[in-house]
Amino acid sequence: MSGDWRIAESVQRRRICALQYNDQSTPPAVSPGPVVLLAILDASGLKLYSHRGLRQQVSERDWAYINELILDLEDRSREFPAEVFQQLSNLSVGPLITGAVEWSEREAKDLCMEFDLCVCDQKDDHSVCSLA
């Protein structure tokens, strides 16, 4: 019976990865940039959430790259959610870097109050992702 309890507990827990923006057009900052994406992995899979001010927080130079990256992550996370989460948990160079990785029992909606779910759909062989 104790094994069943651990399974039920793990279903309620979520792994969260906070990704920070690293503006590469400026000298290295003393403190990390703002958290612009959250990746949440739970029993239902991996979901990406973008900060509502993402577009305003990212330089024009990095915007296209980050937008394409989100589309790619969303696509790959459908088949390989744990592997994509692991990759996001170890970013240390580029415009997005891993800020923190932790466990939480809180609901995703409570963790993402300033964030919106990234929803990507395949339409006419093109991905469309709604971002803030």
Question: What does this 3D model show about the protein?
Answer:
With 132 residues, this protein is an alpha+beta fold. The protein has one domain. It contains five helices and seven strands; from the N terminus they run αβββαααβαβββ. It has helices at 2-12, 54-57, 60-77, 81-88, 108-111, and strands spanning 14-21, 35-42, 45-51, 96-104, 115-117, 119-123, 126-130. The strands form two sheets. Strands 4-1-2-3-5 form a five-stranded antiparallel beta sheet. Strands 6-7 form a two-stranded antiparallel ribbon. The longest helix has 18 residues, at 60-77. It is globular, with a radius of gyration of 16 Å. The relative contact order is 0.23.
Structural descriptors:
132 residues; alpha+beta; five-stranded antiparallel β-sheet; two-stranded antiparallel ribbon; 5 helices; 34% helix; disordered N terminus; disordered C terminus
Describe the SSE topology.
Elements: H1 2-12, E1 14-21, E2 35-42, E3 45-51, H2 54-57, H3 60-77, H4 81-88, E4 96-104, H5 108-111, E5 115-117, E6 119-123, E7 126-130
Antiparallel strand pairs: 1-2, 1-4, 2-3, 3-5, 6-7
Helix content: 25-40%
State the total count of DSSP E strands. Answer: 7
Strand order of the largest sheet: 4-1-2-3-5
**What is the end-to-end distance?**
45 Å
Shape: globular
Tell me what portion of residues adopts beta-strand conformation.
25-35%
- Encode the helix/strand succession as letters: HEEEHHHEHEEE
Number of helices: 5
What is the total number of structural domains? Answer: 1
The main sheet comes to:
5 strands, antiparallel
Runs with pLDDT <50, length 5+? 1-11, 121-132
Computed over alpha carbons, the radius of gyration is 16 Å
